[in-house]
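For anyone still unconvinced, we reproduce a single protein record, the chain in one-letter code, the fold tokenised, and leave readers to judge:
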Amino acid sequence: MPDQTTEHITVINSEKLKIHKEPPLPLAVLTLSGYTKSETYKKGINLLLEQTKKDNISHWLINCAKGCSISSEDHWWTSNEIMPAVSEELDLRKIAIIESKNIFNRLSLMALFDNLDSEAQVEIQFFELERNARNWLLENSDLDF
């Protein structure tokens, strides 16, 4: 299985944050690389939500393998404004997260998604390898990479 489909549509492509969709799959991929400034982070997350609604995306792949760090203010914003919107406004079924090797990044991500997991009907799983994350996204779904 390839790591990603050959066809994808770029939504945003900055040094620290990239988002693309993989049509015809209902999949959006968010890739973070190290510390992401607030303006870039908020713009990217809002675009991810917008595209997820617009295209009825049901699966997210979040790649933090190269680290993903945000400010405490952005963490609060994500936890208190974005996660409720995700659980109330989106029809996500699965979120696969490729973990950072940095333990503090891992703990921060787990805390964010623990909030979502308790509120929404979405399955969330953490992985070390993208291949394993994609295989899990395929289980019991109509996705075909």
Notes: The chain has a mean pLDDT of 86. The longest helix spans residues 72-89. The helical segments are 38-54, 72-89, 103-119, 130-138.
